[in-house]
Design goal:
The chain has 358 residues and is an alpha/beta fold. It is 29% helix and 26% strand.
Length: 358
C-alpha cells in the first residue's frame, strides 16, 4: 500500500512509497482504511525533532476513515463503521483516567515506540502510535471512535486533533468568562479553533496575533474582533486593556519566546493558556518574584484539557448547529502523492488546514 515516509529525523520532505504494510493486527486491534487526514503542526515538529519520535516513521495523526477489520475482543466498532482516529485513547484504568483526566493517559504514548508498519527494509513507526499519511493503519480499538453518517471524513479528521485541541483550550482549560478580553498568539488551525471557542464562551474582545496576513484575515471571519501582526500586539494591549493586559492569552506556537510574550501580555491575575507543543530543550524563563506578585495563572492544555470523547461529541453538536465553522478551516486539499505541497503550505502559513484525501 502507499504511505508517506520520513526516513530520518531532520529531513524536510516525505517520500511516498507503495511497498509499506500495516502490521500488528490481532486481538484488541482494528484495521482502518484512511479516507482523509489533516496536516497538523505536530507532524512537522516530529519531522524536525522538536517532538520525540522514532524514525523511520509515517506522520499523520488527525485522520478518519472506515473500519476494514476488527480483532478478537473488539466490540466498539465493526467492519464498515465510519470512524475518526483518536491518537490519545484513554485506557480507563490508570490513575489519570480514574481521576477523570483522560487526556493525561499515557497508554497511547506507549504505542509510539512499537512499529505498526513495515517495509522490505525493516520496521516503520507511526507518529503518536497512529500514522495516518497512509491508505491503511492498524491501531488499538480505542483509537477508532465511531462518527455519525452526516459527518464528512474531512470534518471528522479535524475534530480528531486540531479542533478538539483549540476549542477545548478555551472551553475546558481556560474556561473563558463572558465579557472578557482574549488574545490568541498563533492562528493556524488550532489557534482559529481557540478563537471560535472564546467566541462561544462570550469573550468581548478577541485579538488574533499572527505574522501571516492571510491568517489574520481569516481569523476575523472566525470570530476575532481584530487581528494584528506580532509587533503590533503591544499597541493592541494598550488600546484595548489600557495597558493592563488581557484576561486570557493563548499561546498556540510552542516556543518559549512567544510564551514569554504571552505571559507579559496577560494581566495580573489573568490566565496564560499554553496550547503549543514545544521542544524539550526550549525553556520558559520566569522569575520567582513575578510569579508570586502577578498571580498569573499558567495553564497548559493537553489535547483540549478534557475528556476527548466528550469533546468530539460537543464539536459535532456545535458544528451541526452552525455555532462553529469547520468547513472553512480546510483551505487546501491535496492527494497523498502531493503531501510535500501540504508541508510547504503549512511552513509558509498559507494554509489553516490542508486536507490530504486518500
Amino acid at each position: 500500500m502507499r504511505a508517506a515516509v520520513l526516513h530520518e529525523i531532520g529531513q524536510d520532505k516525505l517520500e511516498v512509497l507503495d511497498d509499506v504494510e500495516a502490521v500488528g493486527f490481532g486481538p484488541g486491534k482494528v484495521r482502518i482504511r484512511v479516507r482523509a487526514t489533516g496536516l497538523c503542526h505536530s507532524d512537522v515538529s516530529a519531522m524536525n525533532g522538536v517532538l520525540p519520535q522514532p524514525a523511520p516513521f509515517i506522520p499523520g495523526h488527525e485522520g478518519a476513515g472506515e473500519i476494514l477489520d476488527v480483532g478478537d475482543g473488539v466490540t466498539n466498532v465493526k467492519p464498515g463503521d465510519r470512524v475518526l482516529v483518536c491518537w490519545l485513547p484513554a485506557c480507563g484504568a490508570c490513575p489519570a483516567c480514574k481521576r477523570g483526566q483522560t487526556q493525561l493517559c499515557l497508554a497511547g504514548f506507549m504505542n509510539a515506540g512499537t512499529p505498526n508498519f513495515k517495509r522490505p527494509g525493516g520496521d516503520v513507526f507511526g507518529f503518536a502510535g497512529t500514522g495516518t499519511f497512509t491508505e491503511e493503519v492498524v491501531v488499538d480499538a480505542g483509537c477508532a471512535v465511531p462518527i455519525p453518517d452526516d459527518v464528512p471524513f474531512d470534518i471528522a479528521a479535524l475534530i480528531g486533533c486540531g479542533v478538539t485541541t483549540g476549542l477545548g483550550a478555551a472551553v475546558n482549560t481556560a474556561d473563558v468568562a463572558a465579557g472578557s478580553s482574549v488574545a490568541v498568539i498563533g492562528c493556524g488551525g488550532v489557534g482559529i479553533s481557540a478563537i471560535q471557542g472564546a467566541r462561544l464562551k462570550g469573550a468581548a474582545q478577541i485579538v488574533a496575533v499572527d505574522p501571516v496576513e492571510s491568517r489574520r484575515e481569516a481569523a476575523l471571519k472566525f470570530g476575532a474582533t481584530e487581528a494584528v501582526a506580532p509587533d503590533a500586539l503591544g499597541d493592541a494591549k494598550q488600546r484595548i486593556t489600557a495597558g493592563e493586559g488581557f484576561d486570557y492569552v493563548f499561546e498556540v506556537v510552542g516556543k518559549s519566546a512567544t510564551a514569554r510574550t504571552a505571559y507579559e501580555t496577560t494581566r495580573r491575575g489573568g490566565t496564560l493558556c499554553v496550547v503549543g507543543a514545544g521542544a524539550l530543550d526550549d525553556f520558559l524563563q520566569l522569575n520567582m518574584f513575578e510569579l508570586f506578585f502577578d498571580e498569573k495563572k499558567i495553564l497548559p492544555s493537553m489535547y483540549g484539557g478534557g475528556d476527548v470523547l466528550t469533546s468530539y461529541e460537543r464539536a459535532i453538536a456545535l458544528w451541526r448547529a452552525g455555532r462553529i465553522d469547520l468547513e472553512s478551516l480546510i483551505t487546501h486539499r491535496v492527494q497523498l502523492a502531493e503531501i510535500n505541497e501540504a508541508l510547504d503550505q503549512m511552513r509558509t502559513g498559507t494554509a489553516l488546514r490542508t486536507c490530504i484525501e486518500i
